[in-house]
Amino acid sequence: MTCHAIVWPRAFQRSFSNLCPRQRREHGTSYTVPTIGVCITCFNRRERTLRCLRSLRQAHLPSGTNLVVYLMDDGSTDGTTSAVQAEHPYIRLYKGNGSFYWAGGMRLVYGEALKDQHDFYLWLNDDVELLLEAIERAIFTLNALRRSVGGEHLIVGAMSDRDRLTTTYSGLVRDSRVFPWKLKRIDPDPDEPVECETVNGNFVLIPGEVAQRLGNIHPAYIQMHADLVLGIAAKRIGVRNWVMPGFAGICDANVSGRKNWKTPGLSLRERLRLMEHPLGAPVRPRVAYSRNFGLWAPIVIAAPYLTLFYELLFKQCKPEKTD
């Protein structure tokens, strides 16, 4: 983990010399201003999604920079689509049928954004409430790193819980010298960017040329791992990952109340069924993810099953009771 010294100004600059707008056509309209393609996917979190979009609309941006927002609503039944259309008619809204999940929804909107060849891309979770200067600070961090260390970089914005006491999402570093897939989240430094191995996808700023080189999310990923693979793939082509100074926003840890394969008291059959659910630990995404770890791939694939059988054997999980 590297903490890189940068002299920060008292107030973030409103214009950046490294922003070089390019002439292009976007859905039939020519424009030359720098743009950020913001990619979001949502499902049945109407109020959280609206809060996220309001914070995005109020965000401070470098002078002359525009946002183009791509939102996938994956079959929400709580009125998210109509509420977004009424309050944010400028958003490019895509509708799913409930089968896309996070990685699938992001793949669709990110793919659409890539077609428009933006200067930057921002992966943003729909439950994030941005701090006003978060996007501006991310771009300043990127440009400062370009000047001081050269090359290209992904910029991660760390998230805190609502009480500002705990880092909930951020960059990640290796947590083991032996097992390369074991990762731990790091806290942001208040003043300097901190280098990391890979990223949580709640807030990630991606330079346009890097995004085009990396391409879209692999179709094997359904819910998890797509953000981790983004950071791993970036490092593979010489792009460095950094957590920008301070927090980018508020995002409480996502704790689901739904039954999953780790829920105590379930039968082995039920656990295996839930493990293959998109929100569990299905085989196909794990196989794709495991390819990032060379000879360790079989262990990465088998890890959930080893955990399951360990719990069954040593923690004496009881079968699910039936009436």
- CATH fold-level name of the largest domain: Spore Coat Polysaccharide Biosynthesis Protein SpsA, Chain A
Order of helices and strands: EEEHEHEHEEHEEEEEEEHHEHHH
Proportion of strand residues: 15-25%
Q: What is the name of the CATH architecture of the largest domain?
A: Alpha-Beta Complex
Number of domains: 2
Strand segment tally: 15
Find the structural class using helix and strand composition: alpha/beta
The rough form would be described as globular
- Largest β-sheet summary: 10 strands, mixed
Determine the N-to-C terminus distance. 53 Å
Helix content: 25-40%
CATH class call of the largest domain = Alpha Beta
What's the Cα radius of gyration? 20 Å
Mean pLDDT figure: 84
- Number of helical stretches of at least 4 residues: 9
Low-confidence stretches: 4-31, 317-323
Domain Glycosyltransferase 2-like: 38-175
Protein name: Glycosyltransferase 2-like domain-containing protein
Keywords: Membrane, Transmembrane, Transmembrane helix
Pfam families: Glycos_transf_2
